[in-house]
Amino acid sequence: MYYLELFLSYGVLTAVVLTFVIFIHEMGHYLMARAFGVKVEAFSVGFGRELFGRTDRRGMRWRVCLFPIGGYVVMRGELPPFKDADQSFQEEYEAGSLWTRTNRQRALVAFAGPLANFVFAFILMIGVYFFAGKDVANPFIGALEIGAGAEKAGLLVGDRLIEIDGQPVAESFEDIVKQTQNGGDPLSVVVDRDGSELSFQVSLSDLKEEGDFGEKTSRKVMGVVLGSGSWALEAIETVDAIPTHHDIDTVRALLLSRLGQETVVLFGLVKKETDVQKNYRIYLSPDLNRGLTDPQSYYYSSVFYGNDPNVRRKPLPFFQSISASFEFCGKVVKKTVGVLYQIGNGTKDSGDLGGVVKIGEMTGGAARQTEHLGMSIYFKILVVLSMNIGFLNLLPLPMLDGGHLSFNLYEAIRGKAPSPKTRAYIMVSSVGFVLAFVIFVNIRDIFEILS
Question: Cα(59)–Cα(72) distance, rounded to whole angstroms?
């Protein structure tokens, strides 16, 4: 039963999510082609041998294939004939061949796939914010960094933040960060502790971070972790100063013996430049950490901090949902570009791009966390994947929409379509770019190992 659940969570859901996102992409090509009178001969969901399908009144074959990951559309006359093009132009135009359409129309057909992904993601995220709501920050202190300003000032795990620098605590985590940045140092903080309001002056420290493009940044922090969440047991180096030697079973045993109590755990946050180690005081809730005793639980190798793992959300008005969706989609594109940039300059590994396995990990993890995160996590995964597929398809590489658009650009500049020879040169140079990028990344990794 456990393995069936894993298969359904990771295998089937991955196929469904990927196929749906690519279906949206191909539907964009299909609708734009239809708008310009291009004949679409087949719309395939999946690859391989056809399992079942039907032919509509326009003669297009709708089919579902053996391997239901992805899909494609087949258009009539995607490339012009090498000879006698002028003699057959009118006949082919009336038959709906793609090559007979203007350069602008062909470019729009190629761009329509990524555009459909972007529009779908944008509209879906509006719906998430409008109906399910935007995540609201949990103001309860779930963990305290030992030695940081909050712990030195006397704040405790379980305190609820009421005011920061004389202002009520903001609803979103991003706004709480802004309140902390814009406040004084020390920062005036008011908390609720067992029904009593207490005031503290908290000294701030610098948290070093890395931006989307590898730039070094820093922000002021109090040394608190708000709300609830889970940390991997393998990252815990000590429990109440007892070394764990990164043995998960040892960590689990130590934590189980301290359920219902506060404990101090040392986390080793591994980074390329240095290993950052931080001690945190957390309360081990017996209810939230039941997974530690169940080998089949998703949280068997994780520890919960805080008092409520359920994500709270506040529905946004329609126009606020639009602006929030635009901001979210913009962040997704920025992250994607940032990963590509950092892979190129060596600050990230090529595995950070992810693939089918990583997508399966995401969807499977979401399926097993819906109790705490809610169903909207699925929609967010769809949004992220749709934006990523749309953006990556715009890269000027062979077999991608960006490759077709590069031919359209060539034609717009030169005033004529590229010859088969020129088209081959562009294709080869694109493949060469990909190979050079892969070789560069791997040579960098080899030299890093040798050094």
Answer: 17
